[in-house]
């Protein structure tokens, strides 16, 4: 992935460049006057040069989910060029046109395609329009006789062909149409069809640059030694304790710890492990998971309910034929990105240069501003490929550490966290507890539903988030607009905790999908109905939910008895603009569930790259299944009780079920893909376990020390 500045690009180019500004409905992206000599305008996202090079400046990081491929398909289809003929760059710093998420430049929320689809189409259509107009003038024909294909403007009656580069100088002098004509569906040749990822070759041949691969001249390495107890700071450390360690250059003090700097990371790491260091005492020194669970449960008894939504559920409970209540709980989860947390920084007198994998460019900017005197304009940020993100790489602590390390030695320093550092001192999906109460009428319909959450509100940890009416965007997804009950109330009893919390894949949809859909199965049982039939009966008018339920029921042959020894569970969750239904099939082996197959039906609107949709559903199953089966980070004495893959195990190859995916298109707008496949899995698994054992899984993970935790 290249990150060439516009100035350097223009200096290197020997001919005119056509730059197109995307008119963003979400941000202030005003076109500035173009330079008559270069054809350049401000805020350029698409550039075409006289040598036929086409460059897309894409503002979302490639985390391995195929976003850049989808974006290039959108651009290429509208412009008339193959995606693999477009070179990708990323902006060297955040700017207004890229700030679509809470006023920030971020790569989160499955926004990479759905938020950028229309802006990218518009940009490409603008370029195609002026290139076509320039060709029409040169060829002395009407624009209607011309077509943009394969990187050229074609005049089919005569067979004449003008490459884009030949038209750049003339096209750059033409005014950009504010509302260019977009290609009709009949001309779609790329989107909606499977396409191989454009970044795959570089990742196979080793030329792709991840954060861990960065090498710059005169670079040193840094390893961290962080406080083991959350909230503690460094009280003192002894430089003499590692005086004899080879290659050690210096020690930089950073928030909550130190960075040991050496000529290799391994030498830095060995010295950091041996460093004599003392941390301050904190009120959290004896905190453990049982105390946190007790505090959440006590939250349900607070005298003043913290209402998120009041849907007048009292009458339904008063006249109920049957009432059902259950309490569910989820633990801390960590992200375990395959690529560790890493950042290379070089602080100079006139600015700071960074090389790193990040999902949050404005968070990086804020970190720079906290520890330096430099503005956004003085920051150069080279965004590498990300070896996984899942929300973990939305934070800036590694930026501060790398800058402070660079300042200490006056050289670039690459600071890399070990796996243990991230699992024990990183960020977690928050703990949460939910009490769900429902009233059923005599026909088995949900007459009223009341849900109480007790746990942290992640939105309180973000400077840029304002929580109104106790509705924390990062805590109440799925539940706040649940589709089952008209008379519905939702409360959230906030609990302050010292552990750092962060978005984890699907954020609160991940746990709330489990809470809701596992409880819906309990209601189906109370009503004496089949779980699918109960959902159908209570989802009247929810055509997207019903469509994916019908499809997954067909895929799994739900209406027929399961094969001998097979037990099934079903769930459906709407999140990130998409709706996903899943059926889990498992059998018990020595009283332990072995998941053999997962059926997935997704409605994400029109799939831009169906291959990516299928891959994301498969990846979601891998991550969600491991988390639901055994992942948790228990706390004892204020410390995380997990450290690496041996005690926080990803799903193993022999545990991987077959995953069948089908895409349903109900005509809905574009939805997300990276996250919606995860929320239904835990509930479908728990419901299948109940089918097998008759026991409800109300607390995750499902397994404790390899046995069912029931």
Mind explaining what this structure looks like?
The chain is α+β, with helices and mostly antiparallel strands and about 700 residues long. The chain folds into three domains: about 5-190, Aldehyde oxidase/xanthine dehydrogenase, molybdopterin binding domain (Aldehyde Oxidoreductase, domain 4, 2-Layer Sandwich); about 210-280 and about 340-415, Aldehyde Oxidoreductase, domain 4; about 290-330 and about 430-710, Aldehyde oxidase/xanthine dehydrogenase, molybdopterin binding domain (Aldehyde Oxidoreductase, domain 4). The protein is built from 17 helices and 29 strands. The strands form eight sheets. Strands 10-11-8-18-15-16-17 form a seven-stranded mixed β-sheet. It has a five-stranded mixed β-sheet with strand order 13-21-20-19-14. It has a four-stranded mixed β-sheet with strand order 1-2-3-4. A hairpin with a 5-residue loop joins β19 (about 430-440) and β20. α13 (about 510-525) packs across α14 (about 530-540) and α13 packs parallel to α17 (about 680-695). The longest helix is centred in the N-terminal third of the chain and has 23 residues, at about 115-140. Mean pLDDT is about 90; it is low at about 1-15 and about 20-45.
Radius of gyration: 27 Å
Q: What is the CATH C-level name of the largest domain?
A: Alpha Beta
Domain count: the total is 3
Tell me the CATH topology of the largest domain: Aldehyde Oxidoreductase, domain 4
Shape: globular
Proportion of residues in β-strands: 15-25%
The profile of the biggest β sheet is: 7 strands, mixed
Name of the CATH architecture of the largest domain: 2-Layer Sandwich
Low-confidence stretches: 1-15, 21-43
**Helical region count?**
17
Span between termini: 49 Å
Helix content, binned percent: 25-40%
Structural class: alpha+beta
Spatial strand sequence of the major β-sheet? 10-11-8-18-15-16-17
């Amino acid at each position: 992935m290249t990150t060439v500045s516009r100035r350097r690009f223009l200096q290197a180019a020997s001919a005119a460049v056509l730059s197109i500004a995307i008119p963003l409905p979400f941000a202030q992206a005003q076109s500035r006057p173009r330079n008559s000599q270069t054809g350049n305008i401000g805020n350029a996202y698409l550039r075409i040069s006289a040598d036929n090079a086409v460059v897309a400046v894409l503002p979302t990081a490639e985390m391995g989910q195929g976003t850049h491929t989808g974006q290039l398909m959108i651009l290429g289809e509208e412009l008339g060029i193959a995606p693999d003929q477009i070179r990708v760059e990323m902006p060297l710093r955040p700017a207004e046109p890229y700030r679509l998420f809470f006023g920030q430049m971020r790569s989160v929320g499955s926004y990479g395609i759905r938020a950028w689809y229309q802006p990218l189409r518009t940009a490409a259509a603008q370029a195609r329009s002026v290139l076509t107009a320039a060709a029409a003038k040169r060829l002395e024909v009407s624009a209607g006789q011309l077509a943009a294909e394969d990187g050229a403007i074609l005049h089919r009656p005569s067979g004449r062909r003008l490459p884009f580069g030949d038209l750049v100088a003339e096209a750059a002098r033409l005014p950009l149409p504010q509302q260019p004509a977009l290609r009709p569906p009949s001309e779609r040749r790329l989107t909606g069809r499977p396409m191989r990822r454009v970044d795959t070759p570089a990742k196979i041949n080793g030329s792709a640059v991840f954060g861990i691969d960065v090498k710059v001249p005169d670079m040193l390495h840094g390893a961290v030694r962080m406080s083991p107890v959350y909230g503690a700071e460094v009280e003192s450390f002894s430089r003499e304790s590692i005086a004899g360690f080879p290659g050690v250059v210096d020690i930089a003090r950073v928030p909550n710890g130190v960075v040991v700097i050496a000529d290799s990371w391994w030498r830095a790491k060995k010295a950091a492990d041996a460093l004599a260091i003392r941390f301050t005492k904190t009120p959290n020194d004896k905190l453990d998971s049982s105390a946190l669970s007790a505090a959440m449960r006590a939250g349900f008894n607070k005298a003043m309910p913290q209402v998120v939504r009041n849907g007048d559920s009292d009458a339904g409970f008063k006249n109920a034929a049957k009432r059902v209540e259950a309490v569910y709980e989820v633990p801390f989860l960590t992200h375990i990105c395959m690529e560790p947390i890493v950042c290379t920084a070089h602080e100079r007198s006139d600015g700071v240069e960074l090389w790193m994998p990040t999902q949050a460019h404005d968070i990086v900017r804020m970190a720079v501003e906290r520890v330096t005197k430099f503005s956004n304009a003085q920051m150069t940020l080279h965004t590498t490929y990300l070896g996984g993100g899942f929300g973990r790489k939305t934070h800036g602590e590694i930026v501060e550490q790398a800058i402070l390390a660079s300042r200490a030695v006056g050289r670039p320093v690459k600071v890399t966290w070990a796996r243990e550092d991230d699992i024990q001192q990183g960020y977690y999906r928050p703990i949460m507890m939910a009490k769900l109460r429902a009233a059923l009428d005599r026909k088995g319909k949900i007459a009223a539903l009341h849900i109480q959450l007790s746990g942290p509100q992640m939105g309180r940890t973000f400077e840029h988030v304002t929580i109104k009416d106790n509705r924390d965007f990062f805590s109440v997804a799925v539940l706040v607009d649940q589709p089952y009950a008209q008379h519905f109330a939702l409360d959230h009893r906030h609990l302050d905790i010292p552990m750092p919390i962060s978005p984890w894949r699907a954020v609160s949809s991940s746990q709330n999908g489990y809470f809701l859909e596992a409880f819906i199965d309990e209601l189906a049982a109370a009503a004496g109905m089949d779980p699918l039939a109960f959902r159908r009966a209570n989802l009247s008018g929810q055509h997207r939910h019903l469509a994916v339920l019908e499809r997954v029921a067909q895929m799994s042959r739900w209406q027929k008895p399961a094969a001998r020894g097979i037990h099934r569970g079903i769930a459906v969750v709407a999140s990130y603009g998409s709706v996903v239904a899943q059926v889990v099939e498992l059998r018990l082996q020595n009283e332990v569930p072995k998941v053999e197959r997962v059926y997935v039906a997704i409605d994400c609107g029109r799939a831009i790259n169906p291959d990516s949709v299928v891959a994301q559903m498969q990846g979601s199953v891998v991550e969600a299944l491991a988390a639901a089966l055994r992942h948790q980070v228990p706390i004892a004495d204020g410390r995380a009780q997990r450290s690496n893959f041996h005690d926080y195990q990803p799903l193993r190859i022999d545990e991987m079920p077959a995953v069948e995916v089908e895409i349903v298109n109900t005509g809905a707008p574009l939805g997300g893909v990276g996250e919606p496949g995860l929320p239904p899995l835990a509930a479908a698994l728990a419901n299948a376990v109940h089918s097998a054992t008759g026991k409800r899984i109300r607390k995750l993970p499902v397994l404790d020390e390899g046995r069912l935790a029931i």
